[in-house]
């Protein structure tokens, strides 16, 4: 796999953080777990249920030595996230995410979650602007 990085950009490979000082292309010659900096979610940005789930799956990927702890957190957070949504697209996506995480494919799970961010935003903004009616 060929990767191109800009000067100052970071990449997370097998739990190590690398920063390049100039534009560079690298080729990964074997299987490696990696995440590009522009796909890394900072803890302060984990402000919605799906972003929180993304952050936990990201931890599984970028810190293999703590993956067991992150997987335990994932299980609890996943269950809570399922209870949060009824949107069909999100529910199907979450099922795929669980299968991928349990099949040791966290990178693929991150792609699915990222793809659901826009749907989540729409669902959450609709819920805020149309709160359920309460009986008086």
From TrEMBL:
Pfam family, one: FlbT
Keyword field contains RNA-binding: yes
Domain of life according to the entry: Bacteria
Entries under InterPro entries matching the protein: Flagellum_FlbT (IPR009967)
Keyword terms, alphabetized: Bacterial flagellum biogenesis, Cell projection, Cilium, Flagellum, Repressor, RNA-binding
Protein name, as recorded: Flagellar biosynthesis repressor FlbT
Naturally occurring in which organism (per UniProt): Microvirga puerhi
